[in-house]
Amino acid sequence: MDFEEAADALYAASAADFIATRNELAKQLKSDGDQLGSTRLKAMRKPTVAAWVTNLVARELPDELDDLLALGDEFREATADLDGDRLRDLTPKRHKLLDQVAKAATKLSEQQGQKVSADVGQKLRETLDAALVDPAAGDAVREGRLSSALRHVGFGVVDESGEPTNVTQLTDERRQRARQRRKAETAAEEEESAATRSKREKAEREQEEREAAEKTKAKKAFEDAVSAAQAAEATVEDLDNQLDDAREALADAQELVRRLGAELDDARRAARDAQKESREARKRYNRL
């Protein structure tokens, strides 16, 4: 099992078993020689109930989730075109699809023993809506490893309820002008000189080199942090062993104290009996 498989298995576990599953999978990765993967897995956060239900959607309802994300693509295209009519047509579909996916997710969740409260249901819808609106959020939801619910604000051309706002119906003339502007912008990009392309490519190469250097630096910092964590774990384990030894020695000492105390009590009783016998013997001797 590699890290990716372990992470998928972790977020597929029930919320109640998350910590135990994480510890077991991290232990397995470590035993397989993947200390880095083990440390990364231990750092993964337990999902909230809403996040757990959303992850369930990614695993059990992939087709419905794909439909939701595809509808988001249509919304972005209509927004870019300033197409108010199309946005108004898509909005009811948005609500209907969100309702369907949220309802199916709630049913699946309850079948697995996880109740969905009104608050969790609202957060689930907000997360699914964020996935529809934002491609990055959609990718995060599709991955199925959310630890927290998502919420998107500022879609731009729709209000908080999803209805179009500040969008007016386009006339043929305005639509034609918008098409001409897009055509002119495309032509300008295509006419860009070879020198400009070369400059851009050089900048991209330099950016890639900087990113590679930063990645190497970040990897080194991460490896150092892992080494430090391992050293700390070793110190904890050593101190724990020392504490066990000390506790065992203390228990032995306490047993010795108890035994010596008992022997001392016996000796004191024997001494008192001997002294008493001595006094009695003296009395008998004096009477002779």
Automatic annotation (TrEMBL):
Protein name per UniProt: Uncharacterized protein
Stretch list, region Disordered: 158-227, 263-288
Ranges of biased composition (kind: Basic and acidic residues): 201-223, 263-280
